[in-house]
């Protein structure tokens, strides 16, 4: 196969016109160019790397994006093609006598994904100050309780706290989402809060005194109601975020290597064990073992994809990618062997687990088995 023919094939894949056979052929070019096989494809390592760079550049230009690549302008059929183009040079799933995946090599994709998992949904558990728990998935809209100077109401699928100005008592509630659930609530001061899967927020039913303080676990997005006389504070362990009124996301999952605070608008002050920083929109404060760094020009669309009903992977490694799937589909992830490739894709969060995994498998760099509530990851 000549270099010109490879370039023509690449152009068809970029434009979404490639057939399945042509996609397989492209994978063959990427994966077997340097191996001793029958009918070898004549392309050097240098040419292969140059081709990959050219393809990525072409896709960026096609999408009208600069440094960061999104696939929101492409149809689903194009997603698979882009995944194949950008996943990097890796391995094809070939079973050998010593391959960790040999027990699944004979199975079809249909067999490996027969135990499919539905996507997560809206739902949470509200724990009142007296310990009573209300499963919000199953209760109707309307008044839920009166507690600590506020009426708690479920309205249009979210919880709202309506403060009773005549009351002075303050109670604390906790909203918790299980794995595979997310939820939206409005605090008594008007602050809007979205909880990702496997997250929680503890907060007063009404805010009094000189500051508004809440505590979280997991991942939470805030649109804080402005009040210059009563700053808003979010606490997670030794890290706290202080604001007057702004929009920011806080990813504090225990299974992440760093706690991340990403600012969308306004300004926030982040304090950790070793120091503090005020960050601006598009910046992200990262706290790792108490030490803070600040990253600039963060892809905020990728950060906020969970709230907006999407997965966005933009050069995402397999472990980070699988953590997101684990939270949303409520599954355990087991690695049969290390996978070193990076992945680029945009996939709706209302997609069945098998369809997400099938899209990733089209790269030829990773394969999966759904075993009950467990995903086995293999090269």
The CATH topology of the largest domain is Jelly Rolls
Oligomeric state of this protein: single chain
Q: For the report, how would you describe the main beta sheet?
A: 19 strands, mixed
Report the portion of residues in β strands: 25-35%
Poorly predicted tracts of residues:
31-42, 59-100
Quote the distance from N terminus to C terminus: 26 Å
Structural class: alpha+beta
Number of strands: 24
What is the name of the CATH architecture of the largest domain? Sandwich
Helix content: 10-25%
Count of individual domains? 3
Shape: globular
How confident is the prediction overall: mean pLDDT?
80
- Radius of gyration, CA atoms, in whole angstroms: 24 Å
Please report the number of helical segments. 8
CATH class bucket of the largest domain? Mainly Beta
